């Protein structure tokens, strides 16, 4: 995981402000590098990268620069696969080599060269944001993966300067925006011009989109399956096994060989931690991790709870506000079930307690990190992610000992984000079904997935990465997504049939939302978790509406 910064100016080299550079260093504490390039008398380019080394046995410093061509790459991503082939070790140099090869060619091959670069980037399976300068052709490529799993902010200044950065300090009046995760962008820097730069946009296109048009960025997953059930709606019992197999493959890529170039952990230390509310999504991931990691390797479960003065103002003496938080209650329950189903591993339940005074002390920093997102709901969610990702709390090995202060050694965090959007976990999905049946449910799921890249993932990346950790989203693996989109809607959730809480049959006992994922949890022995209700992070951790119950989540921060 890296922090990347690029600037292009007609007035001289533009470096990040000291506060922005500090934020970039937080993302990548292992190395920092900078290249300044005079492309022509009117184009001063600055490339800067910080690196958190997570893959491979050697630290690969950035920006990467090719001596022969003078081309440069700033890469903030994880290429889990190139096409169908898994990537072993560090991916940055491999991506750079592929881009250099694809961009080669004569002067008269501009469009062909662009198409080859686009083809290379479209084969990358995993999250990314990047800036690639093809020096021989003076082409600058930049973009984010189609889901927006890595942050990239854009600032266009009135004097014509152009700046890209993973994160910003938000100290100036300049307007930052989140770069759309809707394809790739190309700037032709061959000729100087006093006019504002105009980027060529190469839009993304689903694999089953047969629209005829110019060059595009092909995606590896289809449109959502819109088929509707007939009179008899039967679930295929093999679907939940297919999902389990797909999640295993996704996790296997994301939790093996972590940070081998830097850390030499002691036995029992954790390389991987889970953002752990105890809910269905994160606990299923945790349970599958148990099958993939050596039994001696620890796994940390990061459970955050907040003191909320609006709710906890009149507690009895000695009553902990943190232990009353719904996610703490659910987290401890799921942790107990994990200990029973998966014995022998050094599981650590890390209770991260955040007093209200600490929340207010970090408020401005969190607002800076989540910028340009700026609503009360953004802040509530960002608080939970910010404090959870720091990984500092209390661990209690058993009920007979005093809890001890503990900070996780893990630099990779797993998140269950994406499961609700893919498998119908929100209340609005049930509402859509009640109003318009399966057709309305399909439309709501399609809307949720289509706006993933425009909503919160960039914000979450900025907030979490400030702790020098990388968040990974196994449910947003391209193959898991393809499976979810291909399945008919009644295979994913089951709002049509009556929920029978007293039944011994999981098909009838389990709640309809995310039914397929509940069946996965049931099949791997986590039957208590399989029956858990969905709860939004800001309500489960008690970060919502701390000052007043009248505040709306959509309200813009003052």
TrEMBL record:
Keyword Amino-acid biosynthesis in record: yes
All residue ranges annotated as the Glutamine amidotransferase type-2 domain in the record: 2-190
UniProt GO MF annotations: asparagine synthase (glutamine-hydrolyzing) activity
Cited InterPro entries: Asn_synthase, Asn_synthetase_domain, GATase_2_dom, Ntn_hydrolases_N, Rossmann-like_a/b/a_fold
Pfam families linked: Asn_synthase
Highest taxon, organism lineage: Eukaryota
Keywords annotated in UniProt: Amino-acid biosynthesis, Asparagine biosynthesis, Glutamine amidotransferase
GO biological process: asparagine biosynthetic process
PANTHER family tied to this protein: ASPARAGINE SYNTHETASE DOMAIN-CONTAINING PROTEIN 1
Name used for this protein in its record: Asparagine synthase-domain-containing protein
Lineage start: Eukaryota, Fungi, Dikarya, Ascomycota, Pezizomycotina
